[in-house]
Q: What sequence folds into this?
């Protein structure tokens, strides 16, 4: 059974206008379902997002669009990772690491059994990445006002430790360039029914 990284702060943005700075998912038909498995992630390599001031993104915090350089993952338009806080957030190396749950450093991770094409996206929190976000940006291109939406996801824990951490699910809706970037909206709504806390605690060990 797959298990996810320990803590994540998840953002869902729904924008009414499309801007070019970062990619978004175009939601064009009301009632359609958007789904993501993350199986487009590599099963063989990690990607450095930021190191020692050199990055495709001049901001060491991000957010980093997973569909463009340096990750270039096909099918992940609209997905972003963002380092919010950490002891070395100003200049610390940030990666999308490859892991089967054995990694102990704080980072974003591409998770799965060794060499498996069945992947998951998550993170492990530590002092270098004490608070972080994984988010999806959807753009309403239906031509109509959408008054409701349903979100479902499967959360997996790939590593346990003695502490309990929580996915905090938040969303924001609006228009303008700030809604194309998970770091910039000033107001998010917390939907606590989407929160998830790791069910397994104990000695630090990978879970499978």
A:
């Amino acid at each position: 059974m797959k298990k996810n990284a320990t803590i994540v702060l998840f953002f869902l943005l729904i924008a009414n206008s499309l801007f070019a700075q970062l990619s978004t998912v175009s939601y064009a038909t009301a009632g359609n379902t958007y789904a993501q498995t993350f199986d487009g992630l590599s099963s063989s390599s990690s990607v450095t997002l930021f190191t020692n001031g050199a990055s495709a993104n001049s901001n060491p915090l991000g957010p980093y669009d997973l569909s463009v350089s340096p990750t270039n993952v096909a099918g992940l338009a609209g997905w972003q990772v963002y380092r919010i806080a950490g002891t070395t957030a100003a200049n610390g190396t940030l990666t999308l690491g490859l892991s089967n749950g054995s990694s102990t450093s704080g980072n974003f991770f591409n998770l799965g059994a060794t060499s498996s094409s069945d992947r998951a996206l998550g993170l492990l929190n530590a002092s270098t990445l004490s608070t972080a976000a994984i988010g999806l940006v959807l753009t309403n291109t239906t031509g109509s006002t959408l008054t409701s939406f349903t979100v479902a996801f499967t959360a997996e824990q790939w590593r346990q430790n003695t502490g309990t951490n929580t996915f905090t699910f938040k969303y924001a809706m609006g228009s303008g360039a700030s809604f194309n970037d998970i770091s910039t909206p000033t107001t998010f709504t917390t939907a606590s029914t989407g929160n998830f806390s790791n069910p397994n605690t104990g000695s630090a060990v990978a879970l499978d």
User: Anything to note?
Assistant: Residues 1-9 have pLDDT under 50 and may be disordered.
